[in-house]
Design brief:
The protein has one domain: Bira Bifunctional Protein, Domain 2 (BirA Bifunctional Protein, domain 2, 2-Layer Sandwich). The protein starts with 16 loop residues before the first helix and ends with a strand. The strands form three sheets. Strands 1-5-6-12-11-10-7-9-8 form a nine-stranded mixed β-sheet. It has a three-stranded antiparallel β-sheet with strand order 2-4-3. Strands 13-14 form a two-stranded antiparallel sheet. It has eleven helices and 14 strands. About 35% of the residues are buried. Helices cover about 35% and strands about 25% of the residues. Helix 5 packs across helix 10. With about 325 residues, it is of the alpha+beta class. The radius of gyration is 21 Å and the shape is globular.
């Protein structure tokens, strides 16, 4: 009998028994952790009408969303590329009249393009959303929960970067740039390349003080004790930035009391994620792995304010040595000693 070897699309792959067994164990541990914090598990549909899935959502999320026509209604459907917008819809529909709503999830998303480094177009996300009242205690809760979830997947050292998208947005609002130029500056800041930023800014007709500040932006990261060293210049453009910086200092100190084994730094160049985030953002990294394994922040989504995070479970799985090993013997999968 001949067998056919099928080739999967780029960025799409199978999860085989050893990984799947480990993944299911971790899924249970993570969901239990969510519940201990008071978060209710939801399983939103993979497909929705695109107008509800992408209502008031960012341009970059729209570009990552696969869309197609519903054969029954003729309307446009979409495969979710992120679950945050679905949580917002669920909160609008079933919010139980509470000021604060807590939801969690553990499920696949589908992306139109695969990440250059992570390679997957079908990430598995484990995440939580706290929608409602803004309070530093809520921010602390979400970040602590994110770290606890990452610790379920790895014993490696964890590094936490905390930034603030609002600081960059307040600075960039002082100059009149089109969307493409703003994206370019944002990209260069994320790369922390001072020379490339300076080179690009020379071609723009903007105030020299703004140019100097943007050129110094890649220096604005490091230990929290040094957060004001390079950020004093920002206060010239917006007095509220000083409050943002003090907020980050308090947030970092509160988290470090709970997770003393986590190395915490500030990073104003950390502008990852989808651009509906507008305030405090944070990323978790693990030792000897170059890309973030979890990302979160505050956001406005479908008229609601919230804070949440998602951990990239598939990426964590690919950087894991499995303790719960199974093997195939005599036609059966069995657990090893």
């Amino acid at each position: 009998m001949t067998s056919t070897k099928w080739i999967l699309p780029d960025g799409i792959d199978d999860i085989l028994p050893e990984q799947a067994y480990w993944l299911e164990i971790k899924r249970r541990e993570v969901i239990d952790t969510f519940f201990q914090y008071g978060y209710g598990l939801v399983i939103p549909p993979l497909i929705e009408y695109s107008d509800s899935l992408l209502n008031n959502i960012s341009e970059d999320l729209d570009l990552q969303t696969i869309k197609f026509t519903d054969q029954e209604t003729g309307k446009q459907l979409a495969l979710r590329a992120d679950i945050t917008s679905q949580i917002s819809r669920i909160c609008s529909t079933y919010n139980f009249n509470e000021k604060i709503n807590r939801y969690c999830y553990f499920d696949n998303v589908v992306r139109a393009k695969n990440s250059e480094s992570k390679k997957s177009r079908v990430p598995i996300q484990a995440g939580a959303e706290l929608i409602g009242n803004f309070d530093i205690n809520n921010d602390i809760e979400i970040v602590n929960l994110m770290i606890d979830v990452v610790k379920k997947f790895t014993t490696k050292k964890i590094f936490l970067d905390i930034g603030h998208v609002g600081i960059f947005k307040k600075l960039i609002s002082n100059i009149n740039l089109d969307n493409e130029k703003e994206k370019k500056i944002k990209s260069l800041i994320k790369s922390k390349s001072s020379s490339e930023i300076k080179k690009y800014l020379t071609s723009l007709d903007i105030d020299n003080d703004i140019k100097n500040c943007l050129s110094d932006f890649p220096k604005m990261h490091g230990h929290v004790d040094n957060i004001k060293t390079h950020s004093e210049i920002l206060n010239v453009f917006d007095n509220n930035i000083a409050d943002d910086i003090n907020y980050i200092i308090e947030l970092c100190r509160s988290i470090s009391k709970i997770h003393q084994d986590v190395e915490i730094k500030y990073d104003f160049c950390e502008l990852q994620g989808f651009d509906y985030e507008n305030d405090v953002i944070f990323c978790a990294y693990i030792e000897n792995v170059s890309d973030e394994v979890a990302i979160g922040g505050r956001y406005d989504c479908d008229g609601k304010q919230g804070i949440g995070f998602s951990a990239d479970v598939r990426y964590l799985m690919n950087n894991q040595k499995f303790k719960n090993k199974i093997s195939y013997k005599s036609g059966k999968w069995v657990a090893e000693d």
